[in-house]
Specification:
Layout: H1 3-19, H2 24-39, H3 44-50, H4 63-75, H5 79-86, H6 91-95, H7 103-113, H8 118-126, H9 138-153, E1 159-160, H10 161-175, E2 183-187, H11 188-191, E3 196-197, E4 199-205, H12 210-218, E5 223-229, E6 233-238, E7 243-249, H13 254-262, H14 265-277, E8 280-283, E9 286-289, E10 292-295, H15 299-305, H16 321-326, E11 341-342, H17 356-365, E12 370-373, H18 388-404, E13 409-417, H19 428-431, E14 436-440, H20 449-461, E15 467-468, H21 486-496, E16 499-503, H22 513-522, E17 526-529, H23 541-550, H24 564-571, H25 581-594
Parallel strand pairs: 4-7, 11-12, 12-13, 13-14, 14-15, 15-16, 16-17
Antiparallel strand pairs: 1-3, 2-4, 5-6, 6-7, 8-9, 9-10
Helix pairs in contact: 1-2, 8-9, 13-15, 20-21, 21-22
The structure holds 2'-deoxyguanosine-5'-triphosphate, magnesium ion (2 copies) and zinc ion.
The structure holds one DNA strand of 29 nucleotides.
DNA sequence: GCCGTTTTCGGCCCGACTGTTTTCAGTCG
């Protein structure tokens, strides 16, 4: 039983209670708890089994939900939830997904007309049977029919941040063509750099006529449908099947509007509550103290006027950042400019398209000081993985390169395959001749969690491995992460002083933000690597930076933000080993000598 | 249902758009 199962139950409970007309704050409590549980990395079932008291320290979980979690972990179900679910037709929950059709209307048509699924609602609306209900009319029926068509044709997954960026930039370029715009900025989950975005949110400031700007927004040729169009905001759906929300405010409200429109919603609610406690009011128009505006134009001033440091958008998730902003203890988040090298890339020796000198030159152009060449190992035949002989050739080539390029350091690496039993594709003798071997799984993804975890932990314990690449193996939209015990992987990495990778390739982003958050909290060193197979691949670094920032990482946490000197001394640290300790001791002298 | 250096009870963010209404409820951001 996973956390996500419990979160889903709480979300569904909230939906059912809301349809039943329950107190909205009780409904919200379920949704808050669901969200907190979804963000939790430790498994609730483990907590319940090992240390149930720990449940009490989880925010938004009180006595009632605490008991429900225990019940679910012990019996596999929650009686009250089952009863609730049986008390309503399940089709009502589908109806909630229809735009502009919420819990009140679901209840209305169910009670008055016996409508309990989307098909029946569509039929009733097309037969003019909805207009007789209080608050409903002819236009409502048309809107329902349109929304149901959208529900059937436009339902899509959230888009990746990288894909959304393309769509956004095209739209921004179009919008900028009109006169009268003061500032134009992306907001919402895109500005917070979430891995995926549900829609795009754009803020515009203008001192004059907002109507012209909003019409221009709605007349974009890529617009499929206009959902709403008023004097300060509009929403459209694009042919790409993504919604775009526009908000327009006066320049003096730019900062407050950015704060509002960037969110997250939970962050906003918490921040506004703090304002209220101080007898102030925060809205998208500004910070107000007895109806007088005391901040608004500048976002930093908005935070400062409420007694908080400015908070980077990436961490505005109400995960404790507001308290830290109050006592000036926010982390100084890693930036792209802090990155000094890339510790996972490929050359023509395996499946890369560029030579080692070409890759190094590209890294140098980015201002990097070092690079690790980590080609594939022999068992990955499709990628022309290196056997011992070819790896020795590569090592020799790097030696020559080093002599010719004293101002740039190339680490001798390998992305060695972790075989099914956790042993490595190359033996220790050849690994000892390298200075940045990383390990990764490229085969047998289907094994169970316990076995897979043991497999990776065994690789971590190898004394020559410095990093585990793409630790969960997911390919976004293609392959789900393999089952592993994340807590155990983190503990092993910490104990053995092995780094875990944020693979920055937009198809991977692995570790993801929650895994990274937990790894950072445990003090595990983290690499942000692009896994480049060509010089252009290095440009993906910024996607990995997004993940790291959202996980609260600073330069201290990120191995490839360290200076070459610091990185080298970290690599020389003695490592506690169990399985292979004796072997390591024998080879210790050799390692120290040959490391660089 | 959760939560507490002003509280263990009484709050819980604030505002825009739509369609219906004659002053506002519902939905959404
Ligand atoms: N104060 C307040 N702000 C909200 C509320 N709902 C949304 N917002 C703000 C914060 C959001 O980040 C922003 C944009 O709303 P969205 O629904 O697009 O959410 P967001 O972009 O965060 O996530 P998404 O990826 O689109 O699902 O509007 C709310 O109920 N109250
Ligand atoms: Mg959004
Ligand atoms: Mg939005
Ligand atoms: Zn690779």
């Amino acid at each position: 039983m996973t956390n996500n199962e419990i979160a889903k139950i709480f979300n569904e409970t909230a939906d059912i209670l809301e349809i039943k007309g329950e107190n909205i704050f009780r409904v919200r409590a379920y949704r808050n708890a669901a969200r907190v549980i979804d963000n939790l990395i430790e498994k609730l079932s483990d907590i319940v089994a090992q240390n149930p008291d720990e449940l009490n320290s989880i925010k938004s979980i009180g006595k009632a939900l605490h008991d429900k979690i225990i019940e679910f972990c012990q019996t596999g179900k929650i009686k009250e939830f089952d009863n609730l679910k049986n008390s309503l037709p399940s089709g009502l929950l589908d109806m909630l997904k229809i735009q502009s059709f919420g819990p009140k209307r679901v209840r209305l048509v169910y009670e008055k007309l016996g409508i309990d699924n989307v098909d029946k609602l569509e039929k009733a609306a097309s037969e003019g049977k909805i207009r007789v209900l209080p608050g409903m009319g002819e236009k409502s029926e048309l809107k329902i029919l349109k929304s149901i068509r959208d529900f059937r044709t436009l339902q899509t997954d959230r888009k990746s941040w990288a894909e959304a960026e393309q769509i956004l930039n095209d739209y921004l370029n179009y919008l900028k063509k009109i006169d009268g715009i003061d500032k134009i900025q992306p907001a919402g989950s895109f500005r917070r750099c979430r891995e995926t975005v549900g829609d795009l949110d754009i803020l515009i400031t203008c001192s004059g006529d907002t109507e012209k700007i909003i019409s221009h927004f709605a007349e974009y040729p890529e617009v499929l449908e206009i959902l709403a169009q008023g004097e300060t905001k509009s929403s459209v759906v694009l042919k790409d099947k993504i919604q775009v929300d526009l908000r327009v405010v006066k320049p003096e409200s730019f900062g407050a509007a950015m704060q509002y429109f960037t969110g997250s919603k939970e962050h906003n609610v918490a921040l506004r509550s703090h304002a209220k406690e101080k007898n102030m009011k925060l809205s998208e128009y500004g910070v107000f103290q007895k109806d007088k505006s005391i901040a608004g134009e500048n976002e930093e001033n908005v935070y400062n006027s409420l007694g908080f440091d400015w908070i980077p958008p990436e961490i505005r998730e109400n995960r404790g950042e507001i308290a830290m902003a109050k006592n000036h203890s926010l982390p100084k988040l890693i930036t792209l400019e802090n990155i000094k090298g890339d510790l996972h890339c490929h050359s023509t020796h395996s499946d890369g398209s560029a030579t080692i000198p070409e890759m190094a030159a590209a890294a140098k152009r980015l201002g990097y000081e070092y690079l690790a060449i980590t080609d594939h190992s022999k068992s990955l035949t499709v990628a022309h993985g290196l056997d011992e002989r070819r790896l020795l050739e590569e090592i020799t080539e790097i030696d020559v390169f080093r002599e010719q390029n004293p101002d740039f350091f190339v680490f001798k690496g390998i992305e060695v395959d972790i075989l099914a039993d956790g042993s490595l594709d190359l033996d220790d003798e050849i690994l000892s001749k390298l200075n940045f071997p990383i390990a990764a799984i490229h085969s047998r993804f289907g094994m169970g969690s316990a076995e897979m975890t043991e497999r990776i932990v065994r690789a971590i314990k190898n004394p020559f491995i410095r990093c585990v690449a793409h630790p969960t193996g997911r390919l976004i939209g293609e392959r789900v992460p393999y089952e592993i015990d994340i807590a155990k992987i983190i503990a092993a990495a910490k104990e053995n002083n092995v780094a875990l990778e944020i693979n920055a390739s937009p198809h991977r982003l692995d570790m993801n933000e929650n895994f990274t958050f937990q790894a950072r909290e445990a003090g595990v060193p983290i690499c942000i690597n692009t896994d480049s197979h060509s010089p252009d691949g290095f440009l993906a670094m910024r996607y990995g930076i997004n993940v790291a920032r959202r996980a609260w990482c600073t330069t201290e946490n990120i191995v490839n933000a360290w200076s070459l000197e610091k990185l080298k001394s970290w690599l020389k640290l003695p490592r506690e080993k169990t399985e292979v300790k004796e072997k390591q001791e024998n080879m210790e002298e050799q390692i120290q000598e040959e490391l660089f």
